[in-house]
Design a protein that fits this description.
Blueprint (H helix, E strand, L loop, with lengths): L16 H14 L15 E3 L2 E3 L5 E4 L12 H11 L11 H11 L8 E5 L2 H16 L3 E5 L8 H4 L15 E4 L9 H21 L4 E7 L16 H9 L3 E5 L24 E4 L10 E5 L1 H10 L10 H16 L2 H22 L3 E7 L2 E9 L4 E2 L1 H13 L2 E2 L1 E3 L5 E4 L7 H17 L1
Parallel strand pairs: 3-14, 5-6, 5-7, 7-8, 8-9
Antiparallel strand pairs: 1-2, 2-3, 4-10, 9-10, 11-12, 12-13, 12-16, 15-16
Protein name: Aminotransferase
GO molecular function, one term: pyridoxal phosphate binding
Family: Belongs to the class-III pyridoxal-phosphate-dependent aminotransferase family.
Length: 438
């Protein structure tokens, strides 16, 4: 999955001399592990709202970057970061009102049983901390994830991020389960089968002498191809991990902060109670901040045995950025906007599906959309080739999306939450034009 929509060596010869020179400099100094998007990579120098700009001033409509959830360079966040930078930045071993204010306002957006926050710098770090907490509290080490999950890049978290590819080995304590397939399963089949598979994974861990510690899922299953439905399908799986003494962790790094429209947090759509929720990416609208929101009884048990400290996690500047994000989300009613504009976007793509038989399924919640591309609508045959051509064709029309899923055939569309109906019209027309050209 990590190679979906990636620039490859075969694409190099088609680039301009200036593009080739910049890529050569990058590879020389940064090494071969980094990847670039698109067959023809893009050089960006500025962002504003839902647009990114290249050195020639060309504007690209950003329908992919959920990190800048409020739009690129939102003035309220820029002002908050700038103001606090000029005053003080230090760590959480000193008292500071910003940090406490942020933790209070953040946890107020959660159900009352999730009332304490632990702050980190990245989502990877948050998931790493969640594993540490779960192991300490449960005494187990086993981890259950979806079959193409991405949860981060630390050594611990990469071991349960199968989307990183076959060369990044899963840990012997990790079991994977296929997510529901709303295109090929009924809601009842999806719910029951996913619950059974999680129980099977639990049983297999036990057979190998491994005590389960946690089930962790990205509640929109982004890397698995975007699976928002059926609502409630997580319930049997959560019940299964709880019966064995393990914890349930909701990874809200991608779907959280109102992106799904109908709820603030993705797990709420399923009527389940996480023991921990991990956060990241949009938390600071681009400023590196992340964290956990945790049940106090879990924190109490962990804190009795361990101490936690993070030099930059929860610093006053991060807290200022986070406070600004929460304020803008509320004042600009961006959760409502995600609901409204997301529904308009799904309707627009559904109209395209009536024109182009390669669009097999349109699904999503709020401004998180998955579009399954197929070569045969009757057989529902995945078509990765046309997916790649469409993503790169849109790039040539200065519209940015990506792709995911086990067959690399699901368009992944998750624009900044300030996306408008007018922006949707631009996206739909670019998709129509690209599909006609194919």
């Amino acid at each position: 999955m990590t190679m979906v929509n990636a620039f490859g060596a075969d694409d190099f010869a088609r680039l301009s001399p200036a593009e080739q020179a910049l890529i050569a400099r990058r590879e020389k100094v940064m090494g071969p592990a980094y990847r670039l998007f698109y067959e023809r990579p893009i050089h960006f120098v500025r962002g504003e709202g839902v647009f990114l700009f290249d050195p020639d001033g060309n504007a690209f409509l950003d329908a992919y970057n959920n990190v800048a959830s409020l739009g690129h360079g939102h003035p309220a966040v820029v002002e908050a970061i700038t103001r606090q930078t000029a005053i003080l930045n230090t760590h959480t071993r000193y008292l500071h009102e910003n940090v406490i204010d942020y933790a209070e306002q953040l946890t107020a957006t959660f159900p009352a049983y999730l009332s304490q926050a632990m702050l980190t710098c990245t989502g990877s770090e948050a998931n790493d901390l969640a594993v540490r907490v779960a192991r300490s509290v449960t005494g187990g080490t086993g981890i259950i994830v979806s079959s193409l999950a991405y949860h981060g890049v630390t050594a611990t978290v990469a071991e349960f991020s199968p989307s990183l590819g076959e060369s990044v080995n899963l840990g012997p304590h990790v079991r994977t389960v296929a997510p529901p397939d709303p295109y090929r399963e009924t809601p009842e089949e999806a719910r029951d089968r996913f619950g059974r598979d999680v129980q099977t994974a639990i049983d297999d861990l036990r057979r190998h002498g491994i005590k389960p510690a946690l089930l962790i899922v990205d509640t929109i299953f982004s890397s698995d191809g975007v699976v928002p439905e059926p609502k409630g399908f997580l319930q049997p799986a959560v019940e299964a991990i709880r019966r064995t003494g393990g914890l349930f962790v909701a990874d809200e790094v991608q779907p959280g902060f109102g992106r799904t429209g109908d709820t603030m947090w993705g797990f709420e759509r399923h009527g389940v109670e996480p023991d921990m929720v991990t956060l990241g990416k949009p938390m600071g609208n681009g400023y590196p901040m992340a964290g956990l929101v945790v049940k106090p009884e879990v924190t109490a048990e962990f804190g009795r045995r361990s101490r936690y400290f993070n030099t930059f996690g929860g610093n006053p500047i991060a807290a200022a950025a986070g406070l600004a994000v929460l304020k803008v989300l509320a004042e600009e009613r961006l959760q409502d906007n995600a609901q409204d504009v997301g529904a308009y976007l799904r309707a627009g793509i559904s109209t395209l599906a009536g024109e182009f038989s390669c669009i097999g399924d349109v699904r999503g919640a709020g401004l998180f959309i998955g579009v399954e591309m197929v070569s045969d609508t009757q057989a529902k045959t995945p078509d990765a080739a046309i997916t790649t051509r469409l993503v790169n064709g849109l790039r040539e029309r200065r519209v940015l999306i990506s792709a995911s899923g086990p067959h690399a055939n699901v368009l992944k569309i998750r624009p900044p939450m300030v996306f408008s109906r007018g922006n949707v019209d631009t996206l739909i027309e670019a998709m129509r034009d690209t599909l006609q050209s194919l």
